[in-house]
Design a protein that fits this description.
Membrane topology (chains A, B): Multi-pass membrane protein
Pfam families (chains A, B): STAS, Sulfate_transp
Organism (chains A, B): Sinocyclocheilus grahami (Dianchi golden-line fish)
Keywords (chains A, B): Membrane, Transmembrane, Transmembrane helix
Number of domains of chain A: 2
Shape of chain A: elongated
Oligomer: homodimer
Largest sheet of chain A: 6 strands, mixed
GO molecular function (chains A, B): secondary active sulfate transmembrane transporter activity
Number of strands of chain A: 10
Strand content of chain A: 5-15%
Chain lengths: 697, 697
Amino acid sequence: IAEMKRVPYHIQRDVLDELGVDQVAEKSDFKISAKEKLRDAVRCTGPRFKSCFLSFVPLLAWLPRYPFRENAIGDLISGISVGIMHLPQGMAYALLAAVPPVFGLYSSFYPILIYFIFGTSKHISVGTYAVMSVMIGSVTERLAPDSDFVIPGNDTNSTTLDIVSRDAERVKIAATVTFLSGIFQLLLGLVRFGFVVTYLSEPLVRAYTTAAAIHVIVSQLKYSFGINPQRYSGPLSLIYTVIEVCALLGQTNIGTLVVSIVTIIGLVAAKELSALAARKIPIPIPVELITIIIATVVSWQMDLKTEYGVEVVGEIPSGLQAPVAPAVSLLGSMVGDAFALAVVGYGIAISLGRIFALKYAYKVDSNQELIALGLSNSIGGLFNCFAISCSMSRTMVQVSTGGKSQVAGAISAVVILVILLKIGELFEELPKAVLAAIIYVNLQGMMKQFGDICSLWRTNKVDMVVWVMTLILTVLFNPDMGLAASIAFSILTVVFRTQLPKYSILGQVPGTDIYKPVEDYNQVKEIHGIMIFRSSATLYFANAEMYIDALYEKTGVDVAKLLSHKKKLEAKRLRKEKKAAKKAKKEAKKRDVAAVEAGPDPDTDTPLPRAIILDLSPVNFLDTVGVKTLRNIYKDYGEAGVQVYLCGCQRGVVESMEKGDFFNEKVTKSILFSSVHDAVLYCQQGNSKEVMQGTHL
Amino acid sequence: IAEMKRVPYHIQRDVLDELGVDQVAEKSDFKISAKEKLRDAVRCTGPRFKSCFLSFVPLLAWLPRYPFRENAIGDLISGISVGIMHLPQGMAYALLAAVPPVFGLYSSFYPILIYFIFGTSKHISVGTYAVMSVMIGSVTERLAPDSDFVIPGNDTNSTTLDIVSRDAERVKIAATVTFLSGIFQLLLGLVRFGFVVTYLSEPLVRAYTTAAAIHVIVSQLKYSFGINPQRYSGPLSLIYTVIEVCALLGQTNIGTLVVSIVTIIGLVAAKELSALAARKIPIPIPVELITIIIATVVSWQMDLKTEYGVEVVGEIPSGLQAPVAPAVSLLGSMVGDAFALAVVGYGIAISLGRIFALKYAYKVDSNQELIALGLSNSIGGLFNCFAISCSMSRTMVQVSTGGKSQVAGAISAVVILVILLKIGELFEELPKAVLAAIIYVNLQGMMKQFGDICSLWRTNKVDMVVWVMTLILTVLFNPDMGLAASIAFSILTVVFRTQLPKYSILGQVPGTDIYKPVEDYNQVKEIHGIMIFRSSATLYFANAEMYIDALYEKTGVDVAKLLSHKKKLEAKRLRKEKKAAKKAKKEAKKRDVAAVEAGPDPDTDTPLPRAIILDLSPVNFLDTVGVKTLRNIYKDYGEAGVQVYLCGCQRGVVESMEKGDFFNEKVTKSILFSSVHDAVLYCQQGNSKEVMQGTHL
């Protein structure tokens, strides 16, 4: 106990307890056993053996060590469950991408096999993803609009579409943009650019996916109502489309609408039941598969297509297609879209991958993920796939059904292969409205993200603004431009956050070496004659001027007026000196007396700081404007006779000052102090010396 | 002296002296007399009387108190000198704006009178400015290109331009964009948005003006060579124009080229002579005025226009014109340009105004300046003026010839009025090449700013990158888009600067309460069992992941592996428990023993931190990602048995943590400490307690 009192620590603690901020409490969860667990764990981090090739093809590293007995059954069940989900989702998302449904199945096959070889996440289910699909759809419909494929009929009023060549063109476009986005991902991965994803902060990603879901829903309304609105592209196209859809509601196909409503109600009810049943049955009920089977049977039996004019999926060719080269001529017109696809696809996959990596304690290599996704998309693009990422809903199923490794993904690809080769053509009578309904119901989770606004309002208003702005920008400017604008905005918030800092005068917590803002605490005391000033943010070009203004205001010194007064005083003195000079020859001594008289002004009793201490500990970096600002502050106050000291500077800040020629013969590093307390002690010391000198002289 | 030793300060100082960073030296410039000067000065800052109206019309405040005897002569001489400069500059810059020269004279008259009434800077010379003029020129030539005013001749090869209606249209465009930019400035001023200028950091402004000067020079080449290149607009137009000019060099008009070369050589020589003579003559020689007078006389005598085909200024109407309403139909197509004009004009004027305000000790009100410039431009726009700002060269002359207040500006306006009414038409024979030469020579200063690259390379590399990027962006994307791109880039640098922070482990400076990075200083010692971690930058979304990675790496703990090992341990324990459970009925006690055995692992002797202290003093703010990161760190290490403490949090940071639900029953504010030393002492105390408990048990 005596040992513990060797420092003035208790005093400090007691004071702070009173202040109510930094309380000291006994930790109950700090047990010896816990520390030992840590020691156990560290044993595992031995020297790392990293073969470049093994890290490039992770399959070779993990497959030979695949714990067959432990994982095989789980992976099998999980793979089949996910494969079954791929079928309806792939077909539905193909609608979003504006390509025939079978290409959604291709996209659920090739890329997944490639990710199986190169991917590092064991749990995410890569494949078709609503947000990516709607982004692809905006490219395909922009570059191959319906209007390009009109076959003029004999009657001038009736026109028909050359749907076959339109779809062929759209598939080519989708495959090409997918190929390009894969190349982008590959390049980003090879130059180790995985960190770009850090710009996709959580509020941004959640708002972005919500906005994308709105785009998805709007794009599917035509299938649900059986109408044919005009295609819009560019900013505000979502608004125009909604208006157009509303205007066309009168032409709704009743049969299609009935199918939509029945399917949505059925799906929602079945999902609720399935959620209730989940506790009893280990494998989730394939609600969507059942839905499309029932819908296909009903559609076929009732002949919905011809009897009620309900649009159906149409021809689904069996088997696989040979690879085709991407359409090089189109590349130029889709660079922006491809880049957005690359970033979004990677962003979604890596954030989901990280969540499960953390949960199941393994590592996801962000650059390798970029390479894996890049290869999946670029090779997939050659096989007419559209861009993939990873789907939250499938991933949840994959994990909950016992999937333990990438093998589950490979098995799901095999399931899709079987469907492609044998079963696919059975679904030709499936109404498109059913697929649209499946999409809506799958987007429930994203819509629930609107609740973020409330929780962010409570926790962090700036992040809420980022959320709302991302939503608005993405809804208005479409997913590609919207993403860029949202990232730019979220980066801007860093500036907003540091541009209006809180400026405080610090005072001493009595009896300690701790200094706190005087406005925050009652008990802290300003030190007589010393002004300690701190900004809550870095000092840089966007707030340098405010820093000076706040400093002058808080210290109660208007340097401009101060200097002007000084000038007047000097002018006065000069005049007196001139007068004196005239009489100088006679009364040589008189001049000195006059000059001395002009010096101290009797009626200035305003308490003034003798020294100013700038606490720079929150400063992260100094730009040239920051260095210049500090130099000006030092100079201005120096001219007015107030010494300025800097404390808490980080190494990099001092280096910036050195390089920026802040220091010279007059201004030495002696004005730097490690802590506020050091600077205060130095000032007080200087003062006591001066007082001593004063009394001795 | 005894008094001075009451603190352990000397020890600290001595150590730091050894470390060679924070040296203590005696201050020689800290004198008593200096302090008294300050006391004198503070007398001036009495309670402020601020009539709203007087602050809106500063003229009413300062004119009644105008010190006639002191200032009048200086202002008169200065006003006449500046007025004489306005004539050639106004005419030359009108060429830049692609309007007839007389409108440059109008722009040197109306706006200056209005600024005289509303402006707060006493020294800047508002009026035509090269950068603004070239920006106007890009608008006028884009909206009224030559091709719109072609009169097809009888011969299909020869076409003539309808110059009169083209110029009328261009004047209308220039006046309208000027009016709109004035309205923008007015609005920005009324909503107190003067702070926008803080985004225009010094490197940015200097690079921007240099790039604008390049645009100016390129736009004037056609007059110097007497050629007619095609007009380009949009990005890269500068490059295209240079290529076109090079291609047309064969068609150079020799007469024009000779005039250009002679004028440039003459001007440069005269300026050098004038600079040499400046020491002897108080008033600067009006070199430019003399140049245009000589040039006009020569051109008239030699009939350069008809004899040599040299393009001359042409008709200069006498007198003033009645105001006209702006062309409302054009407003939509020039919003971006007008906004850029508003920001640039204000940015240049306020930065120059501030320099002189600081030098001559008075205050420039940034919002009132916006209002003054806004009124100057909007009213000027009605009188067919083009947008004005303030010129460095004229301002220097105004100050050096003894100008002491806005009265000098008013007098210069009167000089221009006299020229407009009486003398203007005399200059009709002036070759345009001479005006172009005057522009080149005036841009010397801006070209010298290229030296910034070297000095910034030495002082601050990031600011150098901002400089170079601003130059490149502005040269490539033209002044309007370039400004926006440059500002965006300079804001991005804040992110770059904080995105790659320096992560350090702190150690104690022996015998003190000061903690410094161990890699920076040899003598600091890490504290056994306690890891003190600091990032040099704010923790936010763009670097949160790196923060965790760096922390894990520096502390030598891979939490992922740690958790996986923990899981394995638990699985082992579970298996043992199961086994034990089987035998449980018989040997109930055996299970406990097994569990205890699984606990501490004997061969883990790796030194591990017992506690981790995160020094958050450089953190300016916390976003939700930051809070989540801290929560994860606390949780992960907590699960591994390492206690995490936070210290140096600012008030705002603690508030963000509170709102972000960082604290709960388990995680209390007791983990917060004011300083690193407090946290260290607390840890050591806790440790000694534990040891004591250990020995006692």
